[in-house]
Structure formats: C-alpha cells, structure tokens
Amino acid sequence: MILSALASYYEQILSDHPDRIPAPGWCSRQVKFILELSQDGELFNVIPSQEKRGWEKTVPSQVKRSSGIAANFLCDTSSYFLGVDAKGKPERSMKCFEEARALHTSLLSSVDSDCARAIVAFFDTWDPSSALEHPAVMKAGDELLAGGNLAFACNCNGDYLEAVDDPAIRKAWVDKARQAQDDSFDMTCLVTGARGPVARLHPAIKGVYGAQSMGASLVGFNAPAFESYGHEGEQGRNAPVSVDAAEAYGAALNYLLSDEKHHFRLGDTTIVFWSETCDDGNCDLMNELMGNVSLENRSSAKRDDVEKALAGVLSALLHGKLPEIDGIDFGSTFYVLGIAPNAARLAVRFFMRDEFGFVLRNVARYYDETNVIHAPFEPERLTPFIALKSLENGNSKTPVVSSQLSASFMRAVFEGGRYPDALYSNALLRMRATHKVGRSAAALIKAYLLRNAHYDKKEITVELNRERNEVAYALGRAFSLYERIQSIANGGNSNIAVRYINSACTTPAVVFPVLARLSEAHLAKIAKDKPGFAVVLRKDLCRIMDSVETYPVRMGLREQGDFSLGYYHQSQEHFASAGANR
C-alpha cells in the first residue's frame, strides 16, 4: 500500500511538474565542485559551488555503497574521479579511481560526442600519484578532497557543457540502464502486479531526522532471519519489487523529504504527506494548520488576516461544512506517512489514507479540544509540535519524546481516535517535575478528558467554570487561591506550588489542612494594610470550598487532571483580572 501510493505519486509529479523530480534512471544530488576539462581531456579548472551544500544537480542514479568500492557515473567523490582524498588511504583511493576509469571508459568509448571523448581522455591520462601537485587541485584547496560530489564539464571550442546535459551521454546512460534491467531476474512485482526485472537493492532514502546522512532503506534484507525459505542471500527477491517501481517510490519519497511543504518533524518521527489532486494547495493549507509556516516575516495585518482565515476554516470544518477555497480539493485522497530511524533502515510508525476534508475535520476537532484560555502573547492554537515539545525533559541528554508517543498522538489527531494514555500521564508528570501547570499541559489534559474520559463540554470549558462543583476541580481552584494569598502577603513571593502541588493533587487530605492554616496567617497579614481586600479573598475562598465537604484521602489520575485544570483556570482568571485592573 505504501509503496504503491508513493509510486503513483511519482507518476503524478512526473506528469504535472516534471521539473521537480528526476526521470527514471536519474536522481538528485548536491555537487560541490565541477571538473572542467579541455577537448583533449586535460583538467584546467575546478569550479567551486558558491552554495554551502553545493548545486542541486540531476545525475545518473547512484549505487548504494557501504564499505565496498563501486563507482558512480558522472558524479562521485574525489576518491573516484581524482584518485586522492583526505582519508589517508592512497591504495584504496587508487582502486576507486580504477573502478571509475573502467566504468566511464566502457560507457563512453563508443559515444560520438566531444564531451564523452574528453572524459575518456581524462581517465586515460590522469595520474593520481601527482594529483595533489596539479595547479587546479591546489587552487581548489582541501575542501575538494573532503568527500563532496564532483561532476564533469567540458569546454570544447569555447562551448561550456556539463556532461549530464550532453544528449549523447544521456542516451548512453539510458541504454545502459535498460540493458541492466534486461539482465535482471524476472519476477512478479508486488507493487504493480506486472512481471519484470526485480530490484536487488532498494533506493536509499535521505532526509529522515536521525537516520544516516548517506540514506537509509525502507525495504531491505540484511540477515537470514528476514529472508524467506528458499531465498537465502537473494536480498530484494524475498519481496520482489520491480526496478521501475523501486526507483519510482524512492524518487517520490526523497522528493517529499527534500520539499519543506511536504514534511515536518514531530519528536523523532518525520511525517510526510501528499495529495492526489491539488497537491500544492492542500499541502499549503495543512502546513498552515500544523503551524509549519512562519508568520514572523509577515506584516501584522497579514498575520491577522491569515489567523482569521484559518479560524474560519476550522470553525466550518468543526460544524461539518467544507468551505470553498481556490486551489483546495477537500474531496482529494490525502496520504500521511510517519517514519523514524532504525539503524540503517527506516521504521514505519503509521500510514493513513483518507479524504482531505475528513483529515482536516479531525485536525479541527483536536484544536477545539485543546483550546484553553491563555496569555495574549501565546500562539492562538496549540500545534502538535508545541504540545509534544512541552512534554520533553529539557535536562535529559535525549529530550525528544519517544516515537511511539508522537506516532500514536498524530494518529489520534489525523484519524480522530483516542489519545494515547501516555500523553495524559506525561502531561501530569511534567506538572509534577516543574511544579506548575502550563498552557500546553492544561490543553492536553482537557483534550484527554473530553475524548477519552467522555467528559461533557459544558463541564470541561475553555476558561474558568464557576458552576462546576466537582471536588478535584474545586481543590485545584482553591490551591491557586492559596498561592495567590501567600504571594500578596509576602510581596509577590510564594513557594506553595513548589512545596505542596504534587501532594495536593494526589493526597489532599494530608496537605489542605496545612494550607488552610497558612492562609489564615497570610490573610491576617494582608488585613493589617488592606482589610477590605482580605475580606474579598476570604469570601472567594469560601465560595470555592463550599462544595468540598471532606478532603479526599487519595485522588486518581482523572481527579488529578481535574485538579490541574481547576488550578490552571483559576490562575488564568487571576492574571486576567490583574491585567484588566492595570
């Protein structure tokens, strides 16, 4: 299903935007230097890229290398094209050069092209033993030998031409790739159902957060335990995928991972998404809703317009309506794939396929459930990235939340299922660790109680609900008021939360009598200077505690969530009142 969807998307991009993705037999690579050859094959100039990562070039498909020696056509490192590198292994560099010489000579010797003849002449005359003394190599410096890709260009009779753009050389490569397919083992492809040459090795996927920079495999068999009976050592034949289908899904996935509008990272999971129709428009809207588009460079008026438009879209979706927006197809099939690193391979965390409008309805539902009162300077919506970021332990060596949590959380956001229990427990754990309830923790607790515990929206509200009489909620409100009373009495200082919040939300019968005695002392101190204010605070406390007949000996996880919401709502009410009185 995944490979088939990616292969179909490759055909879609190749048809709609052929400039964005390489044709079959080709791939996209960064090239750091161009080796400019004369008509006689002499290297007379090395052209460095002015871009940090190098030029983005479409080059012939490259082989997968681990520790062996295998040359690439027209684009490779200095080890293969010059016979020297910075690794300090001249014998191996010489073998690499000989491998590249054999490949280029066999492919280009019969090609009727000035550029092809120049490359063959270069490999025939180049001496790796004196390469470091060549003027062009010395001028390029050590970066030439650092491992970046090099490519060929020819200057014949004053005409500059890159080898990858030479029509005769391109035809020679296509013919060679076709011949390699003819020599491959024929089997029925599991993706297309057609019989044809099977890919022995699958393409390397680059751009996944945490995976190897040289690329990782989505499909691979590197141990007998993964192989089927009778197919030992046959690698790709254990799950036959045709060469064309393998190249198609590899090119499509690499394109998605290279284009910022088609992917984002959540924890250690990289999430890619695409649409069968209106791909650009649908993905732009998804990025806006996921908070992947920075609004900082936009004017204040423009930011307000964008926020207003997004709020309108979310409101319409939440009420079951599909707004009409140019360039957006809510009926299009939309795909979301979550992948995470796993040594030299990739692990699929989740994969979903549904109508774009259905996916966005679930996203709108998530934002509605996580909507809580917050400070004006905070973002309007709690994006999944901000939500998970708030659960990370900043003091940990690896603060990123687990891929299992991020994957199950995103499935709930996109598919509308239950939130993972770990999301709720982690929000409570961060409250205990930090001794406070932030906007993100309160929002996640509210969302969990609404969806998983089936609380009524009339109970779990966006802001303070004075009509709610649940004991846990009232105790949370009271704790916030105790904290405020101490802060007023001590000139803005309060340590109640640091000392008591963890035990207050789990064993209130032990803590609240102590807090009540402390508050009496603090109110008496306030009454000396502001007797009327002390009376107001005492009345507020009595109203909150009116529904609490006895203190619970112990509160469970749901009651702890209620306590946290009550504490957060009451604290936000204090901040709002303070701001209004300024």
Describe the overall structure.
Helix content is 46%, strand content 14%. The chain has 582 residues and is an alpha+beta fold. The strands form four sheets. Strands 1, 2, 3, 4, 5 and 6 form a six-stranded mixed β-sheet that branches. Strands 11-12-13-14 form a four-stranded antiparallel β-sheet, with helices on both faces. A hairpin with a 2-residue loop joins strand 11 and strand 12. The chain starts with a helix and ends with a helix. The mean pLDDT is 89.
Q: What level of helicity do the residues show?
A: 40-55%
Main beta-sheet strand count, sense and barrel state: 6 strands, mixed
Q: Based on CA inertia axes, which overall geometry fits?
A: elongated
Head-to-tail CA distance between termini:
60 Å
* Strand fraction: 5-15%
Low-confidence stretches: none
User: What structural class do you assign from the helix and strand content?
Assistant: alpha+beta
Count of helical regions: 19
